[in-house]
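Budget justification, computational time. The allocation requested in the original proposal was used primarily to generate structure tokens for proteins on the priority list. As evidence of use, we reproduce two of the resulting records. The first is shown immediately below.
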Amino acid sequence: MSLFGALNTAVSGLTAQSAAFGNISENVANSQTVGYKEVDTDFIDYLTTSTSQQNEPGAVTTLPDYTNNVQGTITQSSDPLALAIAGQGFFAVSEPDGTSASTSSPTFSAQTYYTRTGDFQMDANGYLVNSADEYLQGWSVDPTTGIANQSQLSPIQITQQQFNPVATTDVDLSANLPAGGSSTTTSSSQVDVYDSVGDEHTLTLAWTPPTSPATAWSLAVTDETGASVGSGTVDFGTGGMAAGTISAVDGTTGTSGAAATISLTPSWSSTPITLNLGNYGQGNGVTQFAASSYSLRNLSQNGVPPGSFTGITINSTGQVQANYNNGQSQTVAQVPIVTFADPSDLQSQNGQAYTATSTSGNPIAQAVNTNGAGTLVTGSVESSNVDIATEFSKLIVAQQAYSANAKMITTADQMLQTTINMQT
């Protein structure tokens, strides 16, 4: 039985080395594949009889040894939307299973896949897609609060192609009006504001020096047509307030620390605009300190004109921001990182993707760099973790081992032939 056992063992050795050769071949072929993870080979010995008195030849078989948790080299990419994970975790992605007849947009399989292939680009439908035709999933973000909905993952799609205008409701002014009657001319500043449809209007804020009392300045606000939109009188340093700070507006003394404001009512807006002059008794807005002339420190407003979409950016925290030509940006989604208890037990799929298994553990989507999740490197991709030199070394060993097993078969054949020839 030993000769036949040796034959069977040698055949199993050929089969095992063939499997190892196949894994080596796959690794070498994918040495330049973004996000690819090397597959090594584990050899396992199977016994027939093995005691202190007798050992019969057994067999050898192989199992794949996945290296899903081994980091590949992160390299810079010319693609600004490319993403790489430094550390543990995967991107959650969807694969298309058809096209919607009404919108011509893709429909997606219910199965979620996981990948390290982060060479994402935005397609014609506003989705982020990698080179394996996998669609990046993320958390949706409330545009008002900026808070991500972490209860659900879905393919990220940029649909907001226009930034709607925001009407001006507040104008903030910080300036110094010269004290001591050193100014006898009107001092003015201009600020551009916006109505509800995004049309721009110019407000002129003109200050007239005081006559009596010497701390009371008159303010007149007009629009680009010269029409009045508001006016008021601002007193400085009376009523127990610190000298040079606002004490009263339109003759009414304010409470120290409270906001000093004037309401503006332009004809082209149904909503009043609040002109913020600072705080009563404080020097953080409009003041009247010693100076030779009017000095403007800040004049700003909170309105926004309409804007057209110019592109997206992804930052290191995974926030996907839509950018517009009016200088505004809006966070529309957040990219989480998905971790597993044992990523090496994930099931390999096409396109460098994986699916969860009972032994890999449940997928846990979490924010970047939290609870063991890796960090996000933007504008970069993770290269294959295959080392060519190592694979060639394995190739030499596999080739020699295969030849040795083949030699065992030819030798056993010769010995059997000798045995058979003994009959003649």
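The second record produced under the same allocation is shown here.
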Amino acid sequence: MALHNPPEKGESARMNRAIRPLEFLIVALAGWLNQDQQKVVEYLLKENRVLRSHLGRRIRLTDDERRGLAVKGKALGRKILKEVASIVTPDTILAWRRRLIARRWDYSSRKRPGRPRVRGKLADLVVRMARENPGWGHTRIRRSLSNLGHTVSRGTIANILREKGMEPAPERVKRTPWRTFLKAHWESLAAVDFFTVEVARWGMFVTCYVLVVLELSTRRVEIGGITPEPHTEFMLQAGRNLTGAPGGLLLGKRFVIMDRDRKYNEKFRILLNDAGIRIMRLPARSPNLNAYCERFVLSIKQECLDRMVFFSEKGLRRAISGYMTHYHHERNHQGLGNRLIEPAPGSSSRTGEVRCRERLGGLLRYYYREAA
């Protein structure tokens, strides 16, 4: 058996030098793999703790739990997360991470240089004074604020009004807000409107037009007429009843609001003008400018007419008459502080047995106490 001669000393040294870099690479690769495995273990441990804290109930993560998963998941990367994540998707985890970074570099809470802004209540007071007094300029508002103990410059007042979209005093005077106009003429103002109701007649539906007149200050309503054909003669008779007859709702009014419906024909408008009533015709498609009438129409339809079927005009008149009695004497009105328009004597009694008055077969009910 032949024996191999041992390598010479120089050759052994060369072999050792060749093996050492390979050993280093193997050790480094093993350490790198072990580091990735350690990150996976840390993420799974965190996920396991989250799952155990939600056993027996729906999983709704807290901000701290989202933050922990985001930190651990970011270290793994999207590819490994797809294999190990089980609660939420990798995209969700990475989105939480981006949100954390965005919060970290958010400087919105830091104080900005310059003069601090005027407090909200003081700014609201400036806007209130400008709205309630269209003729007041910046100097007049500034003087009024000084009477209340506030020191504000004219420039600050101008900036506040500019932010609210309000023009300077000369332009503000020329444009009276609609609400201001209504309040200024509250007692002498009325509004008219039409609404329709379908009546079944001989196997077909006929549209009946109902003319409504409303007094804004008291919310009193008068039905000007009901007809399937609102022709000129009908409108003229309705106008005479409203302006000339005793108790007509337009008697003594100075202004009446109406839209541009063709049923308000020229002869009808001339009749109102001859009675000393100025007609305020609204722009097209602006029902909000006749909001009080529109609200009454909504109420009578929702509470009464939409819940009934009418087979004659007589039945429609009976239903509207019953609702009008309920509306004036038994229905509370939010615009009047939840009061009745015309309360019956003794309706505010706090003693006595509670009674219920029904109208239209129980469709409308009114609860009151029987007078002792």
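A brief technical remark on that second record: The radius of gyration is 40 Å.
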